[in-house]
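Re-run with default settings, no changes from the original entry. Doing this only to confirm the output is reproducible before filing.
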Amino acid sequence: MALNMTSLAIKTLIEFIESDRTIEEASKHITLELYKEFECNKIKDLINNVTTYVNIVSSYYNEILSKKKYVSNTYIMTIKTPLLVHTHNPYMPINIGLSWHPIFNLPYIPSTTIKGVLNRYLLDEKDLIILDSFPVSCKFRLIVPQVITPHYVNEFSEHKINPTPLIFPAIAPGVGFNLTIFSKKKIEKEDINKALFYGLGAKTSIGYGVVEI
């Protein structure tokens, strides 16, 4: 069974504060633990549980909304480049840069993130209802470490600088997320791919968050 993300964050934060280590070091530790523990073959139960939940919720919405002439558009959205999607989680004591569900113990893509992207392109669809997206398929690993080195705040001589690389988690390429959209008419796969062309989440301008239906 995979370790609990919230428990890991709390335990790590306490240990690192007590030992006078930095938040950057804590983030690195959490990222590497997630990379190690969230191998796909270790989280099959988590994936199965959330898939069952997705199917139940989708069926419930479909039953209700079909009476109002809504159409269900259901796809699998595959991550092509590392994905960073974050929302504030009051239960998470340290910011890991990912939206992490406190019950399912998995990263997820909030419906508001998807709706914001789709609304910019599907202008004719005024009444979109979109469900949160969860990982429902996984090939090798769910999480992949990423590294950035912050730019210098002030001007210094190069030989005097020792920048600290920041290591943070991202959702790995190859992971498949459910995408469930209810609309007044059928939305074609090609139209959704066009809307998602520039990616989802953070850092899309440097290649993160490329997804495909």
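The radius of gyration is 19 Å. The mean pLDDT is 86.
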